[in-house]
């Protein structure tokens, strides 16, 4: 074949590759290479055919051949790196990306690929540095700006994240998901839900069937007390968070709110312990709709709620539910029940009760341990929670500030998880009485709380437990708090006995604790 014929055959191979005719494209490439084995284009096209056909080791060999043929070309290094990612070979992928960037340092394609790999390897600070370089090289790439913004968000560079997400939204004002990312950042990380709401509303109008957009709209609406829209769109949570939430499947239909007429309904818990405790308040309303309630909770909650009012039977996910006629996830109750007013959320009386025998035992035990006004504290949540670094407080800071209170107080640790910063808890050096070894399940924690005078905690299940028991509880919240605590208020419609202390500056726990100390002194 002469050059003109080879070029025509290469063009044909390219067209077949684009059309998905991989076998034809591969055959043409091999014909070309038979006549011209060192043809870079044909070797590269063959590598692409092999990769798309799932023949990864052969494709890798073909890419290495293209590198030998054109060692100063960064493109085959990038393709080889992407293939190594697909083959779960991150070390080789990183090496290929670095070689591409050694040839062409400001190439946005290689910078983005490297940054994504670093993010996937949870090397987010390094990814952020690489994303910054990529954005300089490609400042109008909306997808790149979005990924950069989310990486900055994950590392706590919130102002930088906001700027990137705003820039992306400005470049793509008709992209609902890009708008939703911006609104989500404003609400969840910047504490500005009023600004986020119209952005979310615009995103919903553009893409009303996008689950992530609807879910983000729900969180902002709920944080602003817009419960009608909030509970409705909160039902999109299953499709919006497939990696974090698993929707239960039952043979029976999901309850839609109609009168139950003595039918048996399974109410099953979801998400964290605090969510379950918070939404138990609505169980009685289901009984009033004619339902015979079977409640399903995780094992640690079972002893506490075994005799919950209005419930015929309490089981764990591992136990047989017995016969049921219908079911509903616990956090879907407000929507199905049509609870759209703040007054619908409030319980005038405590709806959980501690075991009286256990409470007496705890009071006797605490009297032997310490004297004075008894305060239980929790300074950190579950480290596996994605936002725990924002809501947790270093133990030395919290214990140190509370120890400044004049007068007789005793501090008791209700902490069950190790914090990120403190590691294993050493209560002896913090002036705390450690109760953790005796807190086997939530019935033990409830009894201990009932024996205390006050609970001071970050946003964890203990906050909900103390509130549900009617115990005075002070909750310490980050600058941008969870939707359920709303914004700009120091009380909560969920729990009459709760008082909220909020960061006025992002990350400033010392000022929050100073407010707590002042409140304790008055």
From TrEMBL:
Family matches, as Pfam families: Glyco_transf_9, TPR_16
InterPro entries (alphabetical): Glyco_trans_9, TPR-like_helical_dom_sf, TPR_rpt, Ycf3
Top-level taxon of the source organism: Bacteria
Residue stretches of each TPR repeat: 74-107, 142-175
Molecular function in Gene Ontology: glycosyltransferase activity
Record flagged with keyword Repeat: yes
Keyword list, A-Z: Repeat, TPR repeat
Presence of keyword Repeat: yes
Protein name: Tetratricopeptide repeat protein
